[in-house]
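Researcher: Quick test of sequence recovery. Tokens follow.
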């Protein structure tokens, strides 16, 4: 991760190269990715057809997204930090510096408090009453909290915070800490097929689907999709797929969720609508 937030690190995966090729450009530039690609093209004398993936530390601007769609239509694109609105760069830079500092200071495999999605139709839904939680889609989907971290066997364990434990802690507000922990390590993978865009929300340490609860998720995604309602597929707690609701890929996402082989625990595989007014449940796997 690049410590100088004023410079946007851009990484290209190129056919014929064993290692990724790095370049940088001013973070606030509308053509930062295009500038970085110009450097790589000059230094390595490669064509755009060699690019199979692009990682931009900061979300590409609308101009850069158009550039990449033209130059690298088949390439996978990922980023870590959402591009802020004009006038919000100092706030965004401060938040990014804080994330970087915490990443450097924290053990790589530490416990963290995270939000957990619970479907009211889940066979385990009765346990929800023993946990502090709040509704995300009233009557259908709620958010509880769990401590997630490595186990002695090398796996990832999850321990739900109970009401009793919450009271023993002094009943703190868990939401802010859990959402910050979740957002800190989210990545957005962007794929484009013609006019259709698919965003996969991924996270190394589980629970990527819980990103649907983040209050600024629609704002972040609308920078990629533009205005309008989005269709969100949650085939399991660790996967999230997003397309425009009117996209040709919408039915594919819906089918992937409703045919998911995931064995239901807290979350029933769900299809949701995400818009400026919030989240709405469209369908659940039977």
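Model:
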């Amino acid at each position: 991760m690049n410590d100088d937030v004023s410079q946007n690190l851009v990484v290209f995966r190129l056919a014929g190269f064993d290692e990724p090729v790095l370049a940088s450009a001013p973070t606030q530039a509308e053509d930062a990715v295009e500038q970085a690609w110009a450097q790589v093209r000059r230094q390595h004398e490669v064509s755009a057809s060699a690019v199979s993936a692009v990682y931009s530390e900061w979300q590409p601007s609308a101009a850069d997204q158009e550039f990449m769609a033209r130059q690298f239509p088949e390439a996978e694109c990922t980023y870590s930090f959402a591009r802020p609105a004009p006038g919000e760069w100092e706030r965004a830079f401060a938040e990014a510096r804080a994330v970087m500092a915490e990443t450097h200071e924290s053990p790589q495999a530490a416990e963290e408090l995270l939000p957990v999605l619970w479907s009211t139709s889940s066979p385990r839904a009765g346990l929800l009453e023993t946990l502090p939680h709040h509704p995300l889609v009233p009557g259908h989907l709620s958010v509880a909290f769990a401590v997630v971290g490595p186990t002695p066997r090398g796996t990832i364990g999850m321990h739900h915070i109970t009401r009793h434990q919450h009271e023993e802690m002094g009943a703190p507000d868990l939401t802010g800490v859990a959402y910050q922990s979740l957002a800190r390590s989210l990545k957005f993978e962007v794929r484009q097929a013609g006019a259709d865009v698919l965003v996969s929300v991924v996270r190394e340490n589980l629970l990527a689907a819980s990103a649907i609860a983040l209050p600024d998720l629609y704002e972040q995604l609308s920078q990629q999709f533009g205005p309008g309602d989005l269709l969100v597929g949650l085939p399991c707690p660790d996967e999230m797929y997003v397309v425009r609701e009117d996209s040709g890929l919408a039915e594919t996402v819906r089918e992937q969720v409703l045919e998911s082989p995931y064995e239901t625990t807290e979350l029933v595989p769900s299809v949701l609508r995400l818009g400026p007014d919030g989240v709405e449940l469209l369908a659940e796997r039977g």
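The chain has seven helices and 14 strands.
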